């Protein structure tokens, strides 16, 4: 995963998005509702998703390689947060993997599939923006279309979804 400085300049901005942005709240809530057991939050940032899962009484572990993000995440809730780069093998097993708007930042998105295969027992939910062309987004390594997401995860027979008629897309995987 690339390292961002956005948390140094913006703080825990995802919490503000959760309160004010319908699309973001919908994505996070969909992930929380999908993950009905222990969950690994990949690229947890400031911790909104992992903390919302922990509020439901479920074990949640958020991983990120950004120290500023992890510091903010630990201030906001009861989930466990770890400094980790998903490109290296992780120890542990979770029922679910969730990742909100992170896959586009990964140097090697195959690492998410490795985690699903090796560390997840029940399923995964991954979201991103449906690429409409043009330049790469800020700190993005790759942009995804709906069809590319479906094809990338095809070995898991994903169920695709979209927030209303917007560019926000994702896949649900059940094992």
In words, what does this structure look like?
The chain has 7 helices and 7 strands. α4 (48-55) links the parallel β1 and β2 (60-64). It is globular and about 35 Å long. With 175 residues, it is α/β, with parallel strands linked by helices.
What's the helix and strand layout?
Elements: H1 6-10, H2 13-20, H3 22-34, E1 39-42, H4 48-55, E2 60-64, H5 67-75, E3 80-83, E4 94-100, H6 110-119, E5 120-129, H7 146-152, E6 159-162, E7 168-174
Parallel strand pairs: 1-2, 1-4, 2-3, 4-5
Antiparallel strand pairs: 5-7, 6-7
Helix pairs in contact: 2-3, 3-4
**Strand tally, please?**
7
Model regions low in confidence, pLDDT < 50 over at least 5 residues: none
Please state the average pLDDT score.
92
Tally of individual helices: 7
Secondary structural class: alpha/beta
Order of helices and strands: HHHEHEHEEHEHEE
Gross geometry: globular
Provide the helix percentage: 25-40%
Radius of gyration computed on alpha carbons: 15 Å
Strand residue content: 15-25%
Q: What order do the strands of the largest sheet run in, or round the barrel if closed?
A: 3-2-1-4-5-7-6
Euclidean distance between termini CA atoms: 25 Å
Largest sheet: 7 strands, mixed
């Amino acid at each position: 995963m690339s390292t961002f400085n956005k948390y140094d300049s913006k703080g825990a901005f995802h919490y503000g998005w959760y309160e004010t942005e319908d699309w973001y709240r919908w994505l996070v809530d969909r992930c929380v509702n999908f993950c009905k057991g222990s969950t690994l939050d990949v690229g947890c940032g400031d911790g909104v998703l992992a903390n919302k899962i922990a509020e439901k009484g479920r074990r949640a572990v958020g991983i990120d390689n950004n120290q500023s993000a992890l510091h903010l995440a630990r201030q906001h809730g009861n989930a466990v947060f770890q400094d980790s780069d998903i490109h290296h093998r992780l120890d542990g097993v979770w029922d679910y993997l969730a990742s909100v708007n992170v896959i586009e930042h990964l140097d090697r998105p195959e690492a998410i599939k490795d985690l699903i295969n090796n560390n997840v027992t029940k399923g995964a939910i991954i979201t991103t923006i449906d690429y409409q062309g043009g330049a790469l987004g800020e700190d993005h390594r790759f942009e995804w279309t709906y069809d590319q997401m479906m094809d990338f995860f095809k070995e898991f027979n994903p169920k695709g979804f979209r927030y209303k008629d917007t560019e926000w897309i994702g896949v649900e995987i059940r094992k």
